[in-house]
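Before any further analysis, we paired sequence with structure tokens, yielding the entry below:
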Amino acid sequence: MADNLVTKIFKEHMQNGSNVESGEEVGIQIDQA
């Protein structure tokens, strides 16, 4: 389940054209998951 959540967040950010700041936000969300 956790891997699926991380993949979903990652894909959503990639679709949004993530930049360095977005990558940092994803890292924070993964740590909290």
Remarks:
- Helices lie at 2-15, 20-32.
- The chain has a mean pLDDT of 68.
- The two ends are 10 Å apart (CA to CA).
- Residues 2-15 form the longest helix (14 residues).
